Structure formats: structure tokens, C-alpha cells
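Why run this: before we spend reagent on co-expression, it is cheaper to look at a predicted model of the complex and decide which construct boundaries make sense. The entries below are exactly what would go into the expression plan.
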Amino acid sequence: AQSVTQLGSHVSVSEGALVLLRCNYSSSVPPYLFWYVQYPNQGLQLLLKYTTGATLVKGINGFEAEFKKSETSFHLTKPSAHMSDAAEYFCAVSESPSGSARQLTFGSGTQLTVLP
Amino acid sequence: DTGVSQNPRHKITKRGQNVTFRCDPISEHNRLYWYRQTLGQGPEFLTYFQNEAQLEKSRLLSDRFSAERPKGSFSTLEIQRTEQGDSAMYLCASSLSQNYGYTFGSGTRLTVV
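The model came back. C-alpha cells follow.
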């Protein structure tokens, strides 16, 4: 069974500071990993995904994440926070044998607050 | 690409009533998913369709829940005899086969009073 742990349900950073949101996963097969962002009363928007290949993945809005197999981690970073980054962020994992439904298992989320 | 559309956006119902939600996926997407998200939690998988076939259901989907996708286009999720514990955001997502590009709708927020 797969699972995701997001350390820190709330993270606050100052505008312009580094954003680091932590995600650790558990998977019995090589995982596919995702970060989504959710603004209030909205659906989820894909920030970035890791499937195969390069372990450093760049996404939208200046975010990136690095897949570290030895640490079973997929932490999300952004060098300089912007006020518009304030939102809830979800890490998700999918195990995908060929032909599977590819359902996602989500972490419980991290609420990012950006302070002026 | 008009995105995934969900209706209604909000639904308030009395306990014991039936409710139905609709999801219109991106037209060329043949996979459709329903997820449920409760306050302070990440979304949880409910069920999955490939075209019109419902191929997987979570054990979260009790016998009060039913989902359909006639003709492989829009989907409906019905909850019968609603309970207060059903209060949640119900999210629909669609994707192409062999493609990890899930697109989520904005969700339907259900409140059972």
C-alpha cells in the first residue's frame, strides 16, 4: 500500500524567503509523485510531477521538487516566496503497473502562509 | 479545452435526502475519477471510470453512493439517505489513458444539516 506524509500542516515564510514543503512517501513499487496546489474553494492544480528520468523536476510558478529514492522524499521548493503562493499544497503518490487506474493517494496537505 | 466542470458548486441538504452531483470532463479525456475531500485532509479516491465502465471503487463508497457515466461522457455521483458525515467537497478529475495529466474540477461542496 502506498502512503504520503507531509511534515508540517502549516508553514509560514516571509515574502522573498525560501519555501520548503516536505513530503515523504511509502510505496512498494517505483512511485510516480506529484505536487498539487489548492486555493480556497477551488479544485487542485498540478504544480509538477515525477514519473521517470531526471530526479529534479521543475514545475509552474517557479516551484521545483527533487525525487530522492534513498530518503523516500519529494520535497517542494521555491527560491523566493510571493504573496500569491499562499495556498494549500498536497503531495500525492501513484503506483502504476501498466493498465492500472492510477489513482492518487494524497497527503493531508500543508497550508502555506506568506508574510509581507 | 474548457476544463472539468462540476455542478452544483454548493449543495445544502437535510439529513436523509438524496443528492446528485454532475461532472463534465474534458471532452477527449476517457478516464474520470471521483474524490472526496473533508476539511483539513487531502482528497480520497472514491471511484474511477474508463469510458462508460466503472472499473474501480473504494471501500469508502458505501452502498448509499452510486456513480454513473453513461456513454462515457459526463458522470453523476448520487448519495442516497445523506448523513452528516457525508459533508465534504466532492472533486471530479479527468485524464487521458496512459497520461498522468489529471485535471480537477472546482468541486461540489456538500453540507448535510
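The mean pLDDT of chain B is 92. Chain B touches chain A at residues 4, 6, 31, 33, 40-45, 48, 50, 55-56, 91, 93, 95, 100-107, 109 (CB under 8 Å). Bring this page to Monday's planning discussion.
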